[in-house]
Amino acid sequence: MDNFVKSAIYTVVNTTSYAIIIYGNILVLYPLFYEKKKFAWYAILVVVFLVFAGVLRGYASIELYKYFLLIKTPSINLLMLLGYVPGGVLIYVLSLVFRIAIAYFTLKQQTEEIMLQKSQAELNLLKSQVQPHFLFNTLNNIYYKVYKVDPLSAGLIERLSDIMRYFVDESPKDAVPLATEVAFIENYMALEKIRIRHGASIDFEKEYDPELRLPPMLLMTFIENIFKHGIDKSRKQNLVTISLVQKDGYLLFKTTNHKIASPTIRQTDGFGIANLTQRLKMLYGSRFELKIDQDKELYTAFLKIPLL
């Protein structure tokens, strides 16, 4: 019923005002205060925001009407501008309902995706469990066959089965009994010694509570380094000393071995020690001690970690 200019001004001012209310709430107030459970601050800021948007809308409407339509309007006062505030309340309520609805359907979609991933993971877990158990059963059958003719070889098969069972059952855990970890290390060393022509003399000192727990595979880096870099297969005597001692709330682990004399092969820290150091920092922060000492003949590694 009004002329085109007045209708256009009304449309632009109101649409802009509603857009400010909607997006100000959805993009700023809702994520910064409502989602973070700061409900008191959210309520206060919503009131201030609606008052500001209403006053701005009223002032813009009056000034634009005056400028483009040459309409004489009463002098602008605060009470007149506050009359524009209630019109934005419904827009705010609708924007809040809309934003909550988006959050609900987003959460529902994420929940459905998580349930789907969980079902897939459970299926994959069942598949992964079938294969190792089949292998364990096969190893047990081989063990009983071999034991009749070669008990020593049967014992090695049993150690291999224990190692594989450790990888499947224990290594995914956050912590394992120290006795289980030591048994894994001893099985590993027994199998590695097969490859050494003249054998190796390993002195393993143990003094700890078997029920203590520690993250799995934490000590294996040192043992692997011994057999990779510290054993000379041509030497008739390879001496290795390992010490695992509980003392004053800490676990002390120390390995000492002779360095290989060949100039083409030298013992290095490599990625194993670097990765271990990173893992220790993640597990213990600065509450651990790791030292690597080496001279012309001996390579010594020392680790001190707090007990769990």
From TrEMBL:
Keywords: Membrane, Transmembrane, Transmembrane helix. Pfam families: His_kinase. The chain crosses the membrane at residues 12-33, 39-60, 81-107. The keyword Transmembrane applies. Gene3D superfamilies: Histidine kinase-like ATPase, C-terminal domain (3.30.565.10). It comes from the Bacteria. Residues 121-197 form the Signal transduction histidine kinase internal region domain. This is Signal transduction histidine kinase internal region domain-containing protein.
